[in-house]
Amino acid sequence: MAPGMVAEVIETDICVIGAGSGGLSVAAGAAQLGARVVLVERGAMGGDCLNYGCVPSKSLIAAAAAAQTFRGAGRFGIAAAEPAVDPLALREHVRGVVAAIAPHDSIERFEGLGVRVIRAEARFTGPAEIEAGGMRVRARRFVVATGSRPSAPPIPGLAEAGYLTNETIFELAERPEHLIVVGGGPIGCELAQAHRRLGARVTLLEAFAILGKDDPEVTAVAKARLAAEGVALREGVAIEAIERRDGRVLVRLGGAGAGEVVEGSHLLVAAGRRPNVEALNLQAAGIAFSPKGIEVDAGLRSSNRRVFAIGDVAGGYQFTHVAGYHAGIVIRRALFRLPARVDTRALPWVTYTDPEIAHVGLTEAQARERHGAAVRALTWPFAENDRAQAERETEGLIKVVVDRRGRVLGASIVGSRAGELIGPWVLAVGQRLKIGALANAIFPYPTLSEVSKRVAGSYYTPKLFSGRTRTLVRWLLRLG
C-alpha cells in the first residue's frame, strides 16, 4: 500500500482464512445461514485436497487400476496384455478431474452465496483484526483453516538433490524409470503402487513399519500385494545421505540397509506434513501454537476466544473428512452458541492401496490395552464371500473387536472396496451398537457387504453350535 493511503476496513461476522475443504464448508454454511462472511485465500481455491491431494491422487490411482486390469485379465479367461501408458495423456486425465470438480470450490460460486473473497495472504494485526491484500478485516469470529504442507526430514543432501512431493508429482510429464519413495504411510504406499502399475520401478523406504498405524494382520495383506506387484519394500531402514549424480538420485541407507545405495531416476518424499502457520502472525492475536499446529480445546477454540482453528492446522487427524466435521462444529458453536465438541471415537480412515484398508474405532491391540482380556476379535476372510470369488478379489479380511457384552469397539477391513464397506461399522462404533445389530441385518446377495454380516454372526457361533444348544434342540424335538 502506498504511503498515506488508508486501508479499506471490512466489518464482518465471520472471517475464514483458508479456502480448503474445511474453510469452504464454514464459509458456505455461514453465508447460507445469513451471516456476513469474508473468505481469505492466498493460493488456489479448494486447497490441498482438490489441487494436490485427494482428488489428483485418486485420479492417478484410478488410472493405475485400469492399467492393472489389462495385466490381470487372464484370470477371467481373457488374454492379458501389458498396457501402453501415455504420461502426457495421464497428466491431462488428472487435470481434467480436478477441473471438473473445481467449479464447486470456485470464487464465482462463493461470491454467488454472498461471501466476499479476498485473494491474498492474511496476517493478524491484533486479537480481532487481520490484514489481507491492503484491506483490514474486523470480525466477530475468525476461523483459521490454512491446512498443512509436505515436510521434509533432515536428511543430508536432500535439498540439493531435489525431490517430488504430493504438490509436484502429479505434474510430471514423463514416467519415472525408477521412483524412490521415502515414507511408508498411506500417501507413500498409494503413490508407490500407482506408479508401479503405471510402469515404473519403485522402491519404498520406511524407517519403522509400513502402514504402522493400522492393525498388523490387516496391513500384512496389503503389503503382500504391493510386494507381489513388484514394489521393493524396505522397512527399518535409515537414510544417511542423498545426492544427485549424473542425473540420477543416490540414496545411501543405514539401519537395516546399512552400506547399501539405492539408485533411482526420481525421488518422492512422503514423510509427514507441517501446519501452515508461519505467515499468520499468530502472536499478534494471542493465539498459542506449536510445531503441531494451533492449540485448540475440544470445541476447536484457540487461546483467543474469537478464533477457531479447523482441519490440519488444528494439529489433529489430517483428513479432508475431519476438516468437514470440524466445520460443522464451528458453525454450531459460532452461530448457534451450542456446546459442540470434537469426538473422534468413530473417526474412519481409508488407505487407497489395492486392496484398500479401512478402519474405525479401536484396533485389537488398543482394545485389549483399554478393556483387557475380555475383548474378542472376530475375523472373516473375503475368500468365503461369493461376490469376491466371482470377481477374483479374494485377498482380504474383515476384523471386528467387541467388548465382553458384545458392543462394537472397532473394525478394520482390508480388501476390495473396503472404504465403501466400513460405513455400517462407523455407525456401530458411533452409536455404541452391539454386534447383534449387524448380525440380524439383511444384506443383499451376492455382495461384498455380506462379509459384515458373516463376521458379526461368527460372534454367536460358539454358543449356537455348543453341546448345550444341541441338547436343548433334541429335547425340544421330542415335544413333537
TrEMBL record:
Amino acids binding FAD: 58, 146-148, 312
S-S bridge residues: 49-54
Keyword entries, A-Z: Disulfide bond, FAD, Flavoprotein, NAD, NADP, Nucleotide-binding, Oxidoreductase, Pyruvate, Redox-active center
Top-level lineage group: Bacteria
Binding-site positions, NAD(+): 183-190, 206, 272
Cofactors that this protein relies on: FAD
Residue ranges constituting the Pyridine nucleotide-disulphide oxidoreductase dimerisation domain according to the UniProt record: 348-453
Protein name: Pyruvate/2-oxoglutarate dehydrogenase complex, dihydrolipoamide dehydrogenase (E3) component
Native organism: Tistlia consotensis USBA 355
